[in-house]
Design brief:
2 domains; Oxidized Rhodanese, domain 1; elongated; 10 helices; two-stranded antiparallel ribbon; alpha/beta; 4-stranded parallel sheet; 6 strands
Length: about 220
């Protein structure tokens, strides 16, 4: 009697891989075309005011983290996440993916790379140091103060350097930065109007409609 063998097929769940970063040249080409993506700058308001991509929306990373799901509902179409060099934009990407947004990409090298390669697609305002530079300067100054104070004043002052080391270690483990949050409140980092979630919710849909209008018009002309 012939034997029969049964085969069972198993399906392996698939996950959507993150979209590859967008190069400055690719973004420049999109900015010159009708398919302009939604530009989201996750730096601090002061950094955005100093150097930005015209037409980008300033959504600081901490604001995006607090209102991730609310903002995700407003994001549609292709999204480009922008920061100084790419690190904070990658953090924002993870938050948006957790909220179900899978159309976001990170600008490779950040606004610094875009300015270096396509300066005509950036603009500068009031000049300030980038936040990561401010953090490095502050941390370095405090460590140096602790070291010299421990040698010249009292050994107890040397604990300051250790405290900064603990803070930087905690910052790396938790992917947060209390020092940056404190520096952002300093007078030199203030702007006239800080972004709010209410303002962004009003701006983003209108911006999306404006971006979509040329595409719709071109489709009508071709028809």
């Amino acid at each position: 009697m012939p034997s029969t063998t049964s085969t069972t097929s198993t399906t392996t769940p698939t996950t959507t891989a993150p979209a590859a970063p967008m190069s400055p040249t690719e973004l420049a080409e999109k900015l010159r075309s009708e398919d302009t993506p939604l530009l989201v700058d996750v730096r601090t308001p002061a950094e955005h005011e100093s150097l930005r991509v015209p037409g980008s929306h300033n959504v600081p990373l901490d604001l995006l983290q607090r209102h991730r799901d609310t903002l995700a509902e407003q994001f549609s179409g292709e999204i480009v996440l922008i920061c100084q060099t790419g690190n904070r934009a990658n953090q924002a990407l993870q938050h948006l993916r957790a909220a179900g947004v899978d159309t976001a990409r990170v600008l490779e090298g950040g606004v610094v790379a875009l300015e270096a390669q396509h300066r005509d697609h950036t603009e500068r305002g009031k000049q300030r140091w980038a936040m990561d530079r401010q953090v490095r300067m502050t941390a370095g100054t405090l460590v140096l103060t602790g070291f010299l104070g421990g040698k010249l004043i009292s050994p107890k002052v040397g604990y300051l350097a250790g405290a900064i080391g603990v803070g930087l270690t905690f910052s790396a483990l938790t992917d947060s930065c209390a020092m940056a949050a404190a520096l952002n409140k300093m007078p030199w980092n203030r702007v006239e109007a800080d972004p709010t979630v209410e303002k962004l919710l009003a701006e983003i849909p209108r911006s999306t409609q404006i971006q979509a209008a040329p595409t719709r018009q071109s489709r009508v002309q071709r028809a």
